[in-house]
Design a protein that fits this description.
With about 230 residues, the chain is α+β, with helices and mostly antiparallel strands. The protein is about 35% helix and about 20% strand. The strands form four sheets. It has a four-stranded antiparallel β-sheet. It has a four-stranded antiparallel β-sheet with strand order 2-7-4-5. Helix 4 packs across helix 5 and helix 4 packs across helix 7. The chain starts with about 25 loop residues before the first helix and ends with a helix.
Length: about 230
């Protein structure tokens, strides 16, 4: 990773946790303590079990968050893009990252060190309160996802992920604005590459998706939604 310069005050990511609080007078000094990095596609910037180096905020790009499962298999637990926070699991309660993270595409990151984050939390009550609400919301999302996934069969899990990708990242010319490999979809769905390939081929034959140069497009979103509606 190499350092670059970004400016929180001119950042367009209104959903960024830091951006939401730049109006606070006490935040001005802390913003000067930020470090910026760029990551190339496929580059890992957080290693599971490594010492925590504060929190990362995505300035621009896409990131996959990973957890090592049984037999050392990677499990994608979350996909994140512009403005989202990375590394909050374990922050404040553990000295080491509980997850790993790598760039899906060339990505620009903002980092606030442990010392800076702890100082912000201790001196800016409004920030601390909002951080508590953020953790509560993330916990609720995580619990709901675990419950939903446990009740779905493999086909339904793959469909659910395709719909999630379109909702989160959007599409251009009916093709998703994120290009995941079959293995990455499998790691997110908790299944195998072979099963994902078979399900995608089946959905293509049914005319509900299209595949162009390995990129996926959703042609009949309502039909896909109808197949998993009972789990929503």
């Amino acid at each position: 990773m190499r350092g670059i310069n970004t400016d929180c005050t001119s950042c367009i990511n209104s959903n960024c946790f830091i951006k939401k609080h730049v109006h606070l007078e006490k935040m001005q000094d802390y913003m000067l303590e930020k470090t910026n990095y760029t990551c190339k596609k496929g580059q890992q910037f957080m290693i599971e079990g490594a010492p925590i180096q504060g929190l990362y905020f995505i300035y621009k790009g896409k990131v996959k968050v990973l957890k090592t499962g049984i037999y050392g298999r990677e499990q994608i637990v979350r996909l994140s893009n512009d403005g989202e926070t990375i590394g909050f699991r374990g922050f404040g309660t553990s000295n080491r990252y509980l997850i790993a993270a790598s760039a899906i595409e060339d990505t620009v990151l903002c980092n606030f060190s442990n010392d800076v984050m702890h100082s912000i939390l201790k001196t800016i009550p409004e920030f601390t309160y909002d951080m508590m609400l953020f953790y509560a919301e993330e916990l609720n999302k995580s619990e709901n996802r675990v419950k939903k996934i446990a009740q779905m069969n493999v086909r339904e899990r793959v469909i659910d992920i395709l719909l999630y990708l379109q909702k989160k990242f959007g599409h251009t010319n009916n093709l998703l604005n994120i290009n995941l490999s079959r293995k990455e979809i499998a790691d997110f769905a908790g299944t195998t590459d072979e099963q994902v390939t078979r399900i995608l081929s089946s959905l293509k034959r049914e005319g509900v998706i299209k595949i162009v140069n390995k990129k996926i497009g959703l042609l009949q979103v309502e039909k896909l939604n109808a197949e998993i509606i009972e789990h929503k």
